[in-house]
Write a structure and sequence with these properties.
With about 130 residues, the chain is α+β, with helices and mostly antiparallel strands. It has four helices and ten strands, in the order βαβαββββββββαα.
């Protein structure tokens, strides 16, 4: 399990990033167990979009919404690419994707907001 996305960037201290939810990436079995035990609402798979999960759920009734993705992958014209966290770090006991892992994800996703986040990571390394 690891926190990814904007929440992970905030936990790393990357300035000018606002987290609107917490994205948790888990293996499919752990995600299914968490979803069943913690009152998450399963989300349908959007077969047209670029993001894929074997298991996907969300809770909007928490102080900050939480999204669970089990078996997370990204589809682009080159195919479907599993998204990995190779070296999570602990932040107050929570596993958080490392900056190199987050950088790899952002490069893979390559949306305008991802390119902005990559530049913010680069700026933080300089300051």
């Amino acid at each position: 399990m690891a926190i990814i996305g904007s929440a992970a960037l905030v936990l790393h201290g990357i300035r000018d990033v606002v987290a609107r939810d917490i994205d948790l990436m888990l293996d499919p079995d752990d995600a299914a167990m968490l979803i069943d035990q913690a009152g998450f609402v399963r989300q349908p798979q959007d077969d047209r979009g670029p993001f894929r999960s074997h298991v996907h759920a969300r809770r909007d009734d928490l102080p900050m919404p939480v999204e669970v993705m089990g078996g997370f992958a990204f589809r682009n014209p080159d195919g479907v690419h599993p998204v990995r966290v190779d070296a999570p770090i602990l932040h107050d006991g929570w596993p958080v994707a490392s900056l190199p892992d987050l950088t790899a994800m952002l490069r893979l996703f390559d949306r305008p907001k991802d390119r902005i986040r990559l530049s913010l990571i680069a700026e933080s390394a300089v300051t």
